[in-house]
From TrEMBL:
It comes from Blastococcus carthaginiensis. It comes from the Bacteria. Residues 31-53, 178-211 are annotated as: Disordered. Gene3D superfamilies: CAP. Keywords: Signal. Pfam families: CAP. This is CAP domain-containing protein. Residues 66-179 form the SCP domain.
């Protein structure tokens, strides 16, 4: 039985690693707020979802949120605050990718034109899928081991994040991280430099899963 579990873990890791896009994430920075209707104002941060009250997808989002901030703390970076507008975009995109069966980035620049994101001057995105149920930690570690995605997770210029998982009926799992920089954020400029992979503060591929 231990050998079987070990083999399954390796197979799941391969599934997750293969599923990560090789084109990397998208980062957009603009000199002005989004173009949604009405004057833009800096949105207040939201409380992250409760791991106790939510379904599997919510618990996975909360787990990755905590892991992201653990990684940032380990490298002396300011934590990211939860933003429900970004989380809504992330959940919708994860569900849409699952419905279409395609792992691809959405029109990130177009997101800045949406009214609910009018208080943002920059956004970035990481996406993930696996064909079978994997723990939240597998998605997190996959992003941390990818240079392009780690740029977002550890970017000093972001100050907000929203995360959305989708557990599809066929057993696959889809996830999106939306990173944001609010207008007038008291953070350094967005960086395009790739931070080193090690040390990963949360390397365990554990946590809540769809099943």
């Amino acid at each position: 039985m231990p050998a079987t579990r070990s083999l399954l873990a390796r197979l799941l890791l391969v599934l997750a690693a293969v599923a990560l896009p090789t084109t990397g994430c998208v980062v957009v920075d603009t000199s002005s707020p989004g173009t949604g209707a009405g004057p833009a104002s800096t949105p207040a941060p939201d409380q992250p979802p409760s791991a106790e009250d939510g379904d599997a997808a919510v618990r996975m989002a909360r787990a990755v949120f905590e892991r992201v901030n653990d990684e940032r703390a380990a490298r002396d970076l300011a934590p990211l605050e939860w933003d429900e507008s970004l989380a809504g975009v992330a959940r919708d995109w994860s569900e849409q990718m699952a419905g279409e069966g395609r792992l691809e980035h959405q029109d990130i620049r177009g997101l800045l034109g949406r009214e609910e994101l009018s208080g943002f001057a920059g956004v970035g995105e990481n996406i993930f899928t696996a064909s079978a149920s994997v723990p939240a930690g597998t998605a997190h570690v996959g992003w941390m081991r990818s240079d392009e995605h780690r740029v977002n997770v550890l970017n000093p210029g972001w100050n907000r994040i929203g995360i959305g998982f989708h557990c599809a009926p066929d057993g696959s799992v889809w996830a999106t991280q939306e990173f944001g920089r609010t207008t007038g954020a008291d953070r350094p400029e967005l960086s395009q430099e790739t931070p080193p992979q090690e040390p990963i503060a949360r390397p365990a591929e554990d946590g809540p899963s769809c099943s």
